[in-house]
């Protein structure tokens, strides 16, 4: 399988381009040293495209590390974004700009050459033209406009173009597409990706967005005495998604050349339409829905009246054209800004790699901490809850060592369970006239989704966000897993999203299973839960924990732990405070609503179904769910090094066990094509 290597793929334009590449069927590898970006962008790319995108935290100047990437993947071509890009900064630290941009490119080209990769699309800039207004008849700017960059940043772009030209002259099999961007603006329409400028933004729209969100007082308009319709300068603003698509067109163009044929050619990527600063200001105010404060300041040094592209060459040769407007870009930028007011930067959230191989970022541990010391950690594998710390006490069982999670003895610590939690009798069921035979992984039954259930899957994401409402801080984390038709024997394509909502005393979990419109199966079966083991004793045993539930009714089970269909009282009345321990153990499905439920219970009441306290600590756990049942399991079977039996207990929200094989219960778990399964659970830890 061949790949496109994207340098700087975690950055603003690179991340949007990776999405377009995947959408156009390309496989992508990203190399980025994250000096001006965040891995969260890559996590969100994977979340959007629902595919793993290999990522390497490598500086381009480290040619050995770069070479390893070329050896590991069959690289067919490179899109080269990685660079430092701030014009003002480049005049202050020019050496760093030359070293990073030119040094990085030379290292990249050497490694490409050594690996016989000779196709490159290069991020250049309209900056190479300098002040095109110095000529008559050069606006809109054509590619043949003489170059005269006026700052070190622009000079690095100019020099790299020259290097690529010389390489092509020396070896005419090299294929270089030079893309000269005008003013990229906007964000991904999903609201998940956008520009995340560190410090004070230099560019017009990122600055204006920070004014709108309240991070800056007002916009300074740099001069209103230019010769334009409103006196402000004219630029060619291009939506970043249009720009990203231009790279696909350029790559396709290079790939269509005859075998052995090379090329060196420049293309302007712009809309061909100029907008003034006030035009953009008004478009953004419209997207925001109010007038934003501004003042007219003096002209900014180096600014010129008009820099609009002549994009005819790209239009005709690459068959590419910008289709989105400044208004579209403003709308998308505003969505990105309101949904991510601090970009990817969330002040109470940190992550670390949660794999033995620290260069593999696919499984990470995400920790969110609150001012009162409440701390929650989640991992991509199984979208699991690894740890909750309340008042200095660890109240959820979990492993510190990621490799422990893949051991057979792991009793599903903290994990999401699916596609069907709990048991399916005889490892089979019938649906729409078909019999589905599953793998039996517990006697004759299927337990917790089979041998390759959701607990063993690495979820994409998370999309991590934070909302602040006065003193209240709420963090959300979205994880996604694509469960394909036939996995573990289940029919239908299901997209599973697990949404954690964490505040300074609780962990909420929303379970969403969408049976996709495009699924080959008419219907499927879903029952999702979380398998955390709680322990609020402050010791390694839950013995003595006092539980009190909303119901004493359980599903009666036979010898193989399958429901008989009867609702019966449990052995001890747990609607009264009940001390759990060796003589009072539970592993039963308790029924909150004998009528069962529909397929999506998310808008039903989030009912507190069980509370637990322990005399050792001052902590009370309240478990709530929208589901019609919950499994209370007091952990008798825990048998994994470091954890003894009854070192944790589970309160797993659930539909009725084996519902798919019981006619009156089936409607709880059958999800037709296009329908969505949903439920909620919440675990609150308060002072008793
Ligand atoms: P960005 O800073 O968001 O992305 C650049 C990425 O490259 C970052 O993720 C950074 O971490 C990475 N990077 C930098 N040096 C690296 C190195 N030595 N090794 C590995 N990774 C490195 O910037 P962007 O706006 O997405 O720009 C992408 C490219 O487009 C740049 O080359 C830039 O000069 C060019 N460009 C941008 C604009 C613009 O207005 N945004 C305009 C014209 C051209
Ligand atoms: N601009 C402005 N106020 C700002 C930033 C930019 O008035 O805070 C103007 C700037 O003078 C220029 C236009 O907006 O005319 C675009 O500037 P930007 O820095 O975004 O891009 P440039 O075209 O300079 O690369």
TrEMBL record:
GO biological process: galactose metabolic process
Keywords, in A-Z order: Carbohydrate metabolism, Isomerase, NAD
Matching SUPFAM superfamilies: Galactose mutarotase-like, NAD(P)-binding Rossmann-fold domains
Cofactors: NAD(+)
Pathway(s) of this molecule: Carbohydrate metabolism; galactose metabolism; Carbohydrate metabolism; hexose metabolism
UniProt entry tagged with the keyword Ribonucleoprotein: no
Pfam families: Aldose_epim, GDP_Man_Dehyd
Catalytic activity annotation: UDP-alpha-D-glucose = UDP-alpha-D-galactose
Domain of life per record: Eukaryota
Positions of the NAD(P)-binding domain: 5-332
UniProt GO molecular function: carbohydrate binding; UDP-glucose 4-epimerase activity
Cellular compartments per GO CC: cytosol
UniProt similarity note: In the N-terminal section; belongs to the NAD(P)-dependent epimerase/dehydratase family. In the C-terminal section; belongs to the aldose epimerase family.
Function: Mutarotase converts alpha-aldose to the beta-anomer. It is active on D-glucose, L-arabinose, D-xylose, D-galactose, maltose and lactose.
Protein name: NAD(P)-binding domain-containing protein
Organism whose genome encodes this protein: Candida tenuis (strain ATCC 10573 / BCRC 21748 / CBS 615 / JCM 9827 / NBRC 10315 / NRRL Y-1498 / VKM Y-70)
């Amino acid at each position: 399988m061949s790949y496109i290597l994207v340098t700087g793929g975690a950055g603003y334009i690179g991340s949007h381009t990776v999405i377009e590449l995947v959408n156009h069927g390309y496989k992508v590898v990203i190399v980025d040293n994250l000096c001006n970006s965040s891995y969260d962008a890559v996590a969100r790319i994977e979340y959007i495209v629902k595919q793993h995108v290999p990522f390497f935290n490598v500086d381009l100047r480290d040619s050995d590390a770069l070479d390893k990437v070329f050896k590991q993947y069959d690289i067919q071509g490179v899109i080269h974004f990685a660079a430092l890009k701030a014009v003002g900064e480049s005049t202050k630290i020019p050496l760093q700009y030359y070293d990073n941009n030119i040094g990085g490119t030379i290292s990249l080209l050497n490694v490409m050459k050594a690996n016989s990769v000779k196709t490159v699309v290069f991020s250049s800039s309209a900056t190479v033209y300098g002040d095109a207004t110095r000529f008559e008849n050069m606006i809109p700017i054509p590619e043949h406009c003489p170059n005269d960059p006026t700052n070190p940043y622009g000079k690095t772009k100019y020099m790299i173009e020259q290097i690529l030209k010389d390489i092509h002259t020396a070896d005419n099999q090299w294929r270089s597409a030079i893309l000269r961007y005008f003013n990229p603006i906007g964000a991904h329409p999903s609201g998940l990706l956008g520009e995340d400028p560190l410090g004070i933004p230099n560019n017009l729209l990122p600055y204006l967005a920070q004014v709108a969100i309240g991070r800056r007082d007002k916009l300074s308009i740099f001069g209103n005495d230019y010769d334009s319709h409103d006196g402000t300068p004219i630029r060619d603003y291009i939506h970043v998604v249009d720009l990203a698509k231009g790279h696909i067109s350029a790559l396709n163009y290079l790939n269509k050349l005859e075998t052995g044929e090379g090329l060196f050619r420049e293309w302007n990527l712009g809309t061909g339409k100029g907008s003034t600063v006030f035009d953009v200001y008004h478009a953004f105010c419209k997207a925001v829905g109010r007038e934003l404060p501004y003042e007219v300041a003096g002209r900014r040094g180096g600014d010129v009246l008009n820099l609009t592209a002549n994009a005819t060459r790209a239009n005709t040769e690459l068959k590419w054209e910008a289709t989105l407007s400044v208004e579209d870009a403003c709308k998308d930028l505003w969505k990105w800004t309101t949904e991510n007011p601090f970009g990817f930067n969330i002040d109470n959230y940190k992550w670390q790699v949660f794999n033995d191989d620290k260069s593999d970022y696919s499984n990470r541990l995400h920790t969110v901490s609150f001012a009162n010391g409440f701390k929650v950690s989640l991992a991509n594998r199984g979208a699991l809850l690894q740890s909750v710390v309340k008042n200095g006490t660890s109240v959820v069982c979990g492993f510190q060592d990621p490799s422990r999670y893949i051991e057979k003895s792991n009793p599903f610590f903290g994990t999401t369970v699916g596609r069907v939690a709990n048991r399916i009798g005889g490892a089979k069921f019938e649906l729409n006239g078909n019999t589905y035979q599953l793998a039996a992984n517990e006697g004759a039954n299927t337990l917790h989704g089979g041998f390759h259930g959701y607990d063993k899957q690495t979820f994409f994401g998370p999309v991590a966000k934070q909302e602040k409402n006065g003193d209240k801080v709420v963090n959300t984390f979205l994880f996604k897993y694509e469960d394909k038709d036939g996995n573990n024997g289940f029919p239908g394509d299901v997209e599973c999203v697990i949404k954690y909502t964490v505040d300074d005393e609780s962990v909420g979990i929303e379970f969403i299973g969408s049976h996709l419109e495009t699924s080959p199966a008419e219907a499927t079966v879903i029952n999702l839960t979380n398998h955390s083991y709680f322990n609020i004793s402050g010791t390694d045993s839950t013995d003595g924990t006092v539980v009190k539930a909303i119901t004493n009714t359980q599903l009666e089970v036979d010898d193989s732990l399958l429901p008989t269909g009867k609702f019966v009282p449990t052995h001890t009345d747990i609607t009264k405070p009940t001390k759990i321990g060796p003589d009072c153990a539970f592993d039963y499905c308790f029924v909150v609503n004998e009528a069962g439920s529909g397929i999506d219970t998310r808008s039903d009441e989030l009912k507190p179904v069980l509370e637990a306290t322990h005399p050792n600590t001052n902590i009370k756990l309240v478990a709530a769910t929208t589901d019609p049942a919950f499994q209370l399991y007091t952990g008798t079977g825990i048998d994994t090094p470091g954890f003894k039996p009854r070192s944790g207990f589970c309160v797993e929200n659930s539909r009725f066990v084996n519902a798919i094989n019981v006619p009156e219960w089936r409607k709880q778990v059958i999800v037709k094509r296009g329908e969505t399964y949903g439920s909620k659970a919440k675990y609150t830890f308060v002072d008793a």
